[in-house]
What does this fold into?
Amino acid sequence: MQILRTFVWGLLLVALVAFSVANWTDVTVRIWPGILVDTKVPAIVIISFAIGFIPMWLYLRASKWQARRRIQSLENAARVAQVTPVQPEATTASAVDATPVAPAEPDVPATPPVGADPMSPLPTPPSTKPE
It folds into this structure.
């Protein structure tokens, strides 16, 4: 992969040199009214490329650095977890009291009748009980 990256950068450099030789002319660049700069076309191209490339390259390096730190942190945590033995939990039941305990039934609240909610827009149904 390193050889491929070197090859691409070499091609980019050859293309830049060919462009520079073909376009070696003076141009006048107006930065602000009253400020004129005489420069060559390849200088403008190289500066424009650097203005776009350098911030993105710095962002890439920062992202790779942050990801590398995260990966190292996770690898260290996994290494510690692998080396540390797991302690068995102490049992609370004694040998004398070995009777199984039945689980308690959950308390299920009764559902209120329709309209019993004071905030409900539905009217409360009439009672069917004789009084």
The chain has a mean pLDDT of 82. The beta strands are 26-32, 35-40.
